[in-house]
Amino acid sequence: MGWNFGTGPVFVCESIIGARRWQIYGARACFVALLLLCLMSFTLRQPTQPILYASQLAQIGREFFEILSFTQITLILLAAPASTAGSICLDRARGTLTHLLVTDLSSGEIVLGKFAAKLLPTLALIVAGLPVLMMSALLGGIDFEALAGLFLISLGLAFLGCSLALLLSVWAGKTHEVLLAIFSLWAVWLLGPILIDEAVRSLRFGNTFEILGAINPYVLANRPYSMPLQFRLWHDLVFLTVCFSLSALFLGIAIGKIRHVSARVKREARPRRASTLFAWLPSPSLDTNPVLWREWNMARPSRWARVVGRILSSFYALLIIILFYQVAKDYRIPQWRPGEFGPLLNGFAIAVGLLMLAVNSATSLAEERTRGSLDVLLTTPLSTQSIVLAKWLGVFLRGSKLAIAPTLVIAAMLTTYQGSSVALVLMPGLILAYAAVVTSIGLLMATLTPRLGRAVAWTVAFYAMIAVGGYIVPFVVLRPIHNDFAIRMACGSPFVGVAMTTFIAMDQNESLPSLGPAIVIWSVIYVVLAGALLLMNVMIFDRRLGRVNDRRPPKPQSVSRLNVEPKV
User: Fold this and answer.
1) ∠ at Cα 113 (107, 119), nearest 5°?
2) Looking at the domain assignment, is residue 543 inside a domain?
3) pTM, two decimal places
4) Domain residues for 130?
5) Nearest CA among 430, 417, 433 for reference residue 505
6) If the chain, 568 residues long, is cut into consecutive pieces of 10 residues, what is the mean pLDDT of each piece?
7) Total domain count for the chain?
């Protein structure tokens, strides 16, 4: 089959379809508006005086670059896979991919056309922030080499995220499976080196930050200010070259395997019950709520979710073994000061676990809505409240398992360190509050959005706002005078909140404020927010899914007396 050079019909068709979506333009406008809002907040935070000196303007520019680099990299890591995750699997499910494969188009034209069409919106998002960057560079404090390095890093992440999502989309059957795998991989890539470095430090084997920091895009973007003597622009060029090389490898594999995978006959899945790990727990009754009984006994994750879960669980178990070794070593040598490995480990586990819970909460309802099985459920005499509550409880009970391992880790720490035993109560309560609000957000997005991919994307976006924004707003945007207030506010982020709760069990830093009341307040806030979102979901469920539910009782028919004249 010949190769035709040029954009190709696949690229033209995908570009026209993408240009008609208002969500792309809305995302660019929101991104630029967020940058301008951050720049304005930095300016208003300066002391009120008629003239700002050059040093103050340079400080504003430097702080703005820090928040910009963090926001832009995070947004690209989320947007690049989300825009490309369903490019192959959705066409295969709809049957349009088969029509493409029987034409004269080569595999390279199909794959590269889809890749280029999905990559353009992500590149446009990067370019949209350049005018704000150039405007803020006039304040001083921002080196143009740092801006060039940020642009190179963003470009490499865009190519890497789109190509990896396209490769996984060749084998995956659904969009959320690709997003689940990529986001879990991102979490291991970004947080794994930090945990490994802390583990090496806690074991007194040396320092690996210089080696592991070179593969972290956040560290590379902030190196002009964190390590100015070691900053070289060619480091960013090497990072871009590695991303380009991996992207070319992923695209080559996708081109070579797309026809083979599409022609393969899919085997019927064997019926499989849910995990028997918690089979000893009492099961809900079938007569009381059959939907909850089905969610508890028959609901099971997909094959991709099981594989990702096992890989992450194995990585987490290995780190727990290292942590227990550190705890035992500190128990034998009391003069050693405990490190930050334990808090970072718990924060990493809960952040990644809640990310998987966010994806599962959206797919539990949206997948049935796509298959049509939810329409059959709506025709039953079950009430709307029982259906929504059963779905919510089914996802929440599975997500409540996240509180077991961190609580056991805290119990092990209390045997060695002079911490507070209140953390044994605060930790499961805080994790369950996080799980409740994430579950409510996922079900609400699945109710509001008819498409499965968009429901998962919106759920992950809101979770990222809670997890990442809960750290950025207190420490970077507001920067209050008292750092204790910033720490208390940052406990709204799952990563920070769980890490600070672990610090309470360790009592490592005496300068930490009293975090117990702040954690209790955040737990109550998230529980109230989860209840409000669940109530909103019940109120709009019938209208969004087209269910007719007439609650008005039938009017009793009045029996009128018939005046019948007697026959003579």
Assistant:
1) 135
2) yes
3) 0.77
4) 7-196+208-263
5) 417
6) 60 80 78 75 59 66 77 83 82 81 84 88 84 74 79 90 90 80 83 70 58 74 73 82 92 88 59 49 68 72 74 78 70 53 80 85 81 80 86 87 85 75 86 92 89 80 82 63 70 86 69 72 92 92 77 51 48
7) 2
